[in-house]
What does this fold into?
Amino acid sequence: MKYPKKILLFVAAVAAVFIIKSPVAFASAGKYSVVWGDTLWKIAVKYQVGTSELIAANPQIKNPSLIYPGQVINIPDQTDIKTIELKVVDLVNKERVKRGLQPLKNNWQLERVARYKSADMINKSYFSHISPTYGSPFTMIQDFGINFSSAGENIAMGQRTPEEVMNAWMNSPGHRSNILSPSYTEIGVGYAKSSKGVAYWTQMFIKPLY
It folds into this structure.
């Protein structure tokens, strides 16, 4: 069965961190032994996986605020999905560099937000910038603890590869404008695939406030 291919964009100018149940499941990539001073947040940052993903991969941890030295933590394996997402980032930066623009820095935390958005579109059966779970892209980014002065979002569904989705976005004036905007300095790409094999893609762009 063929599924329709769609694309949408969202743009605007314009922190608390909270734990959300991860909508994406990952196999275990390896083990980490807790040392003095560790917290799940520090371990999550070290492996760029997010605390929700760590908690989901470690059901033996009854209290996420209480871990102890020597405890073994499962680290989720995101290698395959990150390879796809980073390929999109690479293609974005090739387009920017060809036009004399600065490449965008990959932001792993924004990447995680974009991945949640793609998974949410699958789980809640919608295709829109406005999520029934997280609200607008700007609210979602801020609620994940990322501050910005400007932001934009491109979404797509049905394209099978990074090259195919980038071709679709680059052939749409609005999406291309987001990709080539000099207003943004960082990017996060999120990829998810439905049980029927339909790919959902999210690009999030920001100029961060530090």
